[in-house]
Amino acid sequence: MSMKVGFFKDESQFRAKLLSVAGILLVPALWISLKHFGIVSDRYLPSPDAVIRACFEIQPTVFLHFAYTSLRLVSGFIAGVSVGILLGIMLSKWKTLSSLLSPVLDSMRSVPAVAIVPFFLLWFGFSETGKILLVVTGIAFNIAIATHHILQEVPEKHRILFNGFGIDPQSMIKDYSIPRLLETLLPTVRFSLATAMGVVIVSELLGSQIGLGYLMQTARSTFSMHVIFLATIMLGVLNSLVDLILTKSWTRVVYWK
Amino acid sequence: MIATLKSASKADLALKIEGLNYSYKGLCVFKDFSLASDSEIVVLRGASGCGKTTLLKILSGNLMPDFVVSMPSTKGSCLVLQEDSLFPWLSGLENISKITGIKEAQFTKHPMFEVISSYVNRKACRMSYGQRRMVELFRALVFKPKSLYLDEPFNFLDEGNMSLVVPYLQKAASEGTKLVLSNHHQDDKGLISKADIFKFDGNFPVISLSKIG
Predict the structure, then answer these.
(1) Do A159 and B125 touch (CB under 8 A)?
(2) What string of DSSP letters covers B85-115?
(3) What is the average pLDDT across A118-146?
């Protein structure tokens, strides 16, 4: 039995993969059967073929909306993570700065970025800069605080090492702080991806001419359930895709773990 | 004249602790603890959890005693834990040069370098436990601290590696490094000559240690 599964390590891993695939197929299967047996009307749940048709009917094409949303998400996310890490490193390097900014950062991170969308619309209009900056504001503070926290907490074995050889850990940013940060920060970064996604969609809902959020907004006003459904599916796909790329490339960077 | 000089250097080497008190989370580990040895090498023996590591941490200045009458200065002391503390993202060479501040060209001349040369250029995460331990011991030896505290240095080392590293430890001790190490192996007597061996009996609080050899 176990010989047949080939490139999986063992049978239990194969079983887990099989179950995941089944799980992915379960939702569309349920959807199709609900529609097929006519249990739910189109007003409450759009039919699969209406959603597929919507892929080609919408002008401009839904893939363009998808591309805009992904570009905003990815660029805002990368900028936000970079700004957050940089800020966190600065906070750990300069005590004065951390004392000065800590209260502000702590209060800022609990304010949902969605709440300040009107300000960004006022300052930056419908521009792409505004949307990217909104994502940066939405995730950078959290990442900065997590970074600061990780860098403050030197594990005992490393503290003893630094003591014994008379080294200030702050002097080893490239050889110690950054690698240690990378090996512990991934969960926070993944969480930030979900936040970034939410911020992008809200900014598109409220002030945009293109993008999946904008598409949902216009579809909502005409009650086109199939378009909203399509946009939702695409958001799910986008999120899993970016998350997959993120975790795969991250584990490649921290190859020693 | 020579005799006084000799005794002065002896006194400098001696490990002398008097009236050490230390408790950890309500457990009194050391109570009016005293220890004296004028040997170049001191070996602490005993089962795990008997206070060996705690004593090494106190001596190396990584733990503050609650109260102590006298103990050696913690300045210039280096403790190597039994936990692996090489950075896995750096190579063995980088782990040595970046931590000790000694240039590669310099430390490769050390006679013990030959022992680790076949794997030291690898990333630490691609070395075995034993290899990492050897690199850590080498690093501590080239750094030449005033006092060197080694917690279970022979863990993960096979007989061969152990017999390779012991002469260098002895050499360092004879050159003036105060060497204290803990070891739960019973077979160190032949390996480390000229050492004072003290045994923890496993009871708390520890007041004194019985000297074996």
Answers:
(1) no
(2) -S-TTSBHHHHHHHHH---HHHHTTSTTHHH
(3) 90
Round the average pLDDT of chain A to a whole number and report it. 89
**Largest separation between any pair of C-alpha atoms in chain A:** 75
Rounded CA gap, B187 and A222, in Å?
85
Q: B77 with B147: CB under 8 angstroms?
A: yes
Q: CB of B63 within 8 Å of any CB in chain A?
A: no
Q: What are phi and psi of B90, to 5 degrees?
A: -110, 155
Amino acid, res. A52: I
Q: Do B143 and A255 touch (CB under 8 A)?
A: no
Chain B residues with CB-CB distance to A176 below 8 A: 87
Q: Is the ipTM of this complex over 0.90?
A: no
B28-80 pLDDT per residue, tens:
889 888 888 888 888 888 888 888 899 999 999 999 999 988 888 888 899 99
Sequence-separated (6 or more) residues with CB below 8 Å from residue A20:
none
Strand pairing partners for B35? Answer: B17
Structure tokens at B1: 């004249």
Give the pLDDT confidence of A195-209 residue by residue, as tens digits: 999 999 998 988 888
To test the contact with chain A by mutation, choose from B57, B62, B78, B89 the residue with the greatest count of A C-beta atoms within 10 A, namely B89
